[in-house]
Amino acid sequence: MVTRRAWVRLDNASNIFLAARSDADPKVFRLAAEMDHDVDRERLQLALDATYDRYRLYHAVLRSGVFWYYLQDSDLRPRVTAEEQPTCAGIYQADRRRLLFRVMHHRRRIILEVFHVLSDGTGALWFLSDLVAAYTRLGDLAQTVPLQSPDGDGPIEPDLGRAAAGTRSGVDGTPLTHQLAGDSFAHYFRGRRDRTSSPGKAAFTSAAAPAALAVADHIPSTPHRGIDASRGLSRPPRRSSTKVHRVRGTRTPDNRTRAVELSMASTEVLALARAESVSPTMFLTALFFESIRRSSDGLGPSYTLAASVPVNLRQFFPSTSARNFFATVRVEHTYGKGADDLGSVCRQLDSQFRPKATPEALEKKLRRFIRFERMPALRIVPRPLKDVILKLVNWRSNRGLSVAVSNLGLARLPEPAESRVARMLFQVSAVRPQLCAMSHAGLLTISFTSPFIETGHIREFARLLTGSGVAVTLAAARVTETELAEGGP
Q1: Among 120, 272, 388, 393, which residue's beta carbon has the most beta carbons within 10 A?
Q2: How confident is the model at residue 189 (pLDDT cuts 50, 70, 90)?
């Protein structure tokens, strides 16, 4: 008897990730939590088993049909491994049926890496939060119920339901289960939507608590109507009158991601942003631009820097789906055509970002995106040709970008995990230099990732912060042959 497995088509963002992935940028991102002790692998495996059962979405494998890709339920089980691969190494392999995420540990770190087709940063943070909470509760249970039997014959199975209890729940108090279905793009932006069918705000707030993006800090209360915030597939972004600077460098030897982490007090950086009356995300973007300019000897003939900034749509369109649900906003600054000091650039970027990140502007943009995706002529195009079309569209869009900036904001974990986790970090594989920020327990961790070995812009970024009185610590992964030969972590 053949078992029919549940399946669901990919959302529109996932289709782009599949078409745009490469050896240098496998479209994988990483979230990690640093515990107050070295991670116990066996306990983490038990916590993963408990968490995995509540996330049916994470059971999915990626399959391909004649006209589209789709996610299909599977009976595979994940295994915790030691961190032995480079940061954000590839996960998806077209000829293998495998899960689209991995869980690893390294010293005090619990690490989750996800293929972006499966989930976005917010959805993955939900998974990691529940995983760390279950792991911590299992530790508490072990104080009263040993995880090993007294005679040493093997482990005693703890109450995994109890370990997972107290994690994210709905408005009625029952634990949320993240199903395979649930395409929020289709729910909100395909055709005429029924606004009364959306989940209640209370349920949304409970589900979204761990990942309130900092970009929401400066969304104006009065929407800016009539502003062209469009950038869908059917209409590529308008080019600036000046050429956009594209950062270039020496590729890492084996296409591994160059990752560098900066850690600092989050209150100090927040104070700098508030002094300029801008959101933390726009302050970090302006600081990134200035770092690129200083490390590029004046940018040469290209004076415009442009950044792509993702916006969590859940803050405007309630959704408890862990699948991708975000949009990107493009901001830019042209040097030499006005005030170029850091404060002026901050405010100019913020004035661009605000009107583009309203619910009205985002909905207009995404409806155009969906209409293009569902054009009758495009729907009957075979999948391999769709991939080529999307790859070309993505290539054209990338030519108008210098860097990318992603801020997951302040992460909050359920107790007792909240008090036992220090830093949390967020990193992505990157086709261009990228900045990812995340804060927890008073610590802001800024991760720079890049396909290049050069780190001049990171050095300038750190100098700008320390020059403003912010104490910064730095850690970097080794990527070159010389660095790898030195050994160590």
Answers
A1: 120
A2: confident
Confidence of residue 191 (pLDDT cuts 50, 70, 90): low
Place of tokens 């972590």: 489
Residues forming a β-bridge with 446: 262, 437
What is the torsion angle, in degrees rounded to the nearest 10, for the CA atoms of residue 166, residue 169, residue 173 and residue 176? -120
DSSP 351-365: HHHHHHTSHHHHHHH
User: Percentage helix, strand, coil, to 5, in the chain?
Assistant: 35, 20, 40
How many angstroms separate the CA atoms of 230 and 237, rounded?
8
Q: What is the pLDDT of residue 408?
A: 96
Quote the CA–CA distance of 24 and 479 in Å, as a whole number: 13
**SS3 state at 154:** coil
DSSP string, 414-466: -TTTGGGEEEEEEEE--SS-EEEEEEETTEEEEEEEESBS--HHHHHHHHHHH
d(CA 258, CA 478): 8
pLDDT of residue 65: 81
SS3 81: strand
Q: How far apart are CA 81 and CA 151, in angstroms?
A: 27
Looking at the DSSP assignment, which residues form a beta bridge with residue 259?
Answer: 449
Under CATH, to which class is 7-153+160-170+179-485 assigned? alpha beta
Half-sphere exposure at residue 483, Cβ-oriented, CA atoms within 13 angstroms: 11
Question: Using one digit for the tens of pLDDT, what is the confidence trace for 45-94?
Answer: 999 999 999 999 999 999 988 788 899 999 999 999 999 999 999 999 98
Interatomic CA distance for residues 81 and 86, integer angstroms: 13
Query: 10 Å Cβ neighbour count for 342?
Result: 17
pLDDT at 229: 29
Residue 413's alpha-carbon distances to 176, 212, 214, 290, 422, in angstroms, are 16, 12, 17, 34, 11
Q: Among residues 297, 265, 298, 271, which one has the least CA distance to residue 283?
A: 271
